[in-house]
Specification:
- The structure is a single chain.
- The protein is of the alpha/beta class.
- It has two domains: 187 residues, 3-Layer(aba) Sandwich (Rossmann fold); 130 residues, no CATH class.
- Helices cover 35% and strands 16% of the residues.
- It has twelve helices and eleven strands.
- Helix 2 links the parallel strand 2 and strand 3.
- Helix 1 crosses helix 7 and helix 4 crosses helix 5.
- The protein is elongated, with a radius of gyration of 25 Å.
- The two termini are 42 Å apart.
- The structure holds iron/sulfur cluster.
- The site of iron/sulfur cluster has 10 residues, from helix 4.
Length: 336
């Protein structure tokens, strides 16, 4: 990717956390206007990706570094010290972890400080004075974080005191209104930016319910299982066994992508159109019969017809004959 790289070695070097949203973009442009060299870092997990940040980086010609932080993120997600938001979103500890990872990158790559597009009071839970202080403290880089859009409302940082950054040219935004940012975007000629909300599955109620179930029943979570939580109907048959039933052709395609033939079992009704069913990690004979019966129930056959279901597993393939369990009966297994 491109960058504003001319003589960056003699200019202060700032590394920004980029979500790809307008606030991230503006925070970088405010610093760049002061002749500070800016680059971005963004993070990926199964819960959020780098798509918006990649677009913002291309449009604004800012070099972007992408890091997958799934293992550390999962550990934090199991017991975030500051707790969860409305769903499974551990926003304060998520920010703290991102700043910590960004801080390590800053040290390894010769940046002078970190910055982000956070605005004081914009999000009642994750962008108030307390949460900004919590994030700074728990990241381990409290004295290296600058928030250019709200700097005038926050205590002066070492970067401003030393003259590396001109405090007078930073902003004093606060509160939930987006108007000042929209006006600034027009001044900077930024026309294309995403709407502020969305993009993190941990704020989604359904995804969070499935994730909670997975964390409650498995001590180790496989990455493909975290992706599978996004697709199909999820049913828990017993504490060790769950199944995923494709609802649409698209579900079936996504499920095939994350199906692991080394560990998972796949069930498919023979001779009738029907959904793809996955049993992650496999299950007992009894659970396979139950899963096959549920699978058969999603085909348009009478409940007294015997249906042949093919089961493909890591060790062998087999076919079994079952009577359908209709969706209305199977509903009690639904993870919802
Ligand atoms: S919404 Fe998701 S990505 Fe954003 S801070 Fe919260 S947990 Fe992290």
């Amino acid at each position: 990717m491109t960058s504003d790289s001319s003589d960056s070695c003699v200019r202060p070097r700032a590394l920004g956390l980029c979500s790809g949203g307008l606030d991230s973009i503006l925070s970088a442009l405010v610093l760049r206007e002061q002749n500070i060299h800016v680059e971005w870092i963004t993070f990926e997990t199964p819960f959020f990706d780098a798509e918006k940040a990649i677009k913002a980086a291309k449009q604004n010609k800012i070099e972007l570094h992408i890091r997958d932080i799934t293992p550390e993120y999962l550990e934090m997600l199991k017991a975030p010290p500051a707790g969860y938001g409305k769903n499974m979103n551990p926003c304060m500890d998520c920010h703290a972890l991102m700043f910590r990872k960004a801080g390590e990158f800053m040290q390894d790559h010769g940046f002078d400080f970190l910055f982000s597009g956070e605005v004081m009071g914009q999000r009642p839970m994750s962008q108030n004075g307390n949460s900004l202080r919590y994030v700074a403290k728990h990241s381990g880089f409290a004295d290296k974080i600058l928030r250019p859009l709200s700097a005038g409302k926050l205590p002066e940082t070492a970067m401003e005191q030393s003259g590396m950054v001109d405090r007078q040219r930073l902003l004093k935004l606060s509160g939930r209104s987006r108007k000042p940012q929209i006006m600034l975007a027009a001044q900077y000629g930024v026309k294309d930016y995403p709407s502020p909300a969305g993009g993190c599955l941990l704020t989604d109620k359904n995804y969070s319910t499935r994730l909670r179930d997975l964390l409650d029943h498995e001590s180790q979570q496989r990455i493909n299982e975290l992706h599978l939580l996004k697709h199909g109907r999820h049913m828990r048959l017993d504490p060790q066994t769950k199944i995923i039933i494709g609802r649409t052709k698209q579900d079936n395609e996504h499920m095939s992508r994350y199906f692991d033939p080394q560990t998972d079992m796949a069930l498919k009704v023979q001779n009738h159109p029907g959904p793809m069913v996955i049993m992650p990690g496999g299950g007992s004979k009894e659970m396979l019969f139950l899963a096959a019966s549920i699978c058969a129930g999603y085909c348009k056959v009478s409940e007294t017809s015997t249906v042949c279901v093919k089961i493909s597993g890591p060790e062998k393939d087999e076919s079994i004959s079952v009577l359908p369990v209709l969706p209305k009966e199977a509903k009690r297994f639904m993870i919802s």
